[in-house]
Amino acid sequence: MFGQLKLAQTRFQGCLESVQRIGPENQEKVSLLPLTSSFDPEKVIVDVGTGYFVEKSRADAKKHYEDKIAYVTKNMEQLQDTIHRKQDNVRVVGEVMQVKALQQRENA
Predict the structure, then answer these.
(1) Mean pLDDT of 34-46
(2) How far is CA 63 from CA 16, 60, 80, 102, in A?
(3) Which tens digits make up the pLDDT trace of 77-98?
(4) Which range marks the domain in which residue 44 is found?
């Protein structure tokens, strides 16, 4: 689960970097062109998931990916907190079991 979130975060970060690189100053470097007669370097196609794409302004696309990165980062932090709590619980249970085993040996 954590690995999948990290992969999604990396992918969204790459998308954000791509959106930031697009602009009028480098429109000659575009590798994918729309099938229409006009080209607007301020518009990009954004993958919004499950095979759906929407046209957004560069600013909206940037915000979209920043929001996605923030969402995934928040989920990763929550998952990391849960993992730490579970690890603490396992450690405490292990310590209690050791104490019980020691007590049982002393009683025997």
Answers:
(1) 67
(2) 9, 5, 25, 58
(3) 999 999 999 999 999 999 999 9
(4) 1-74
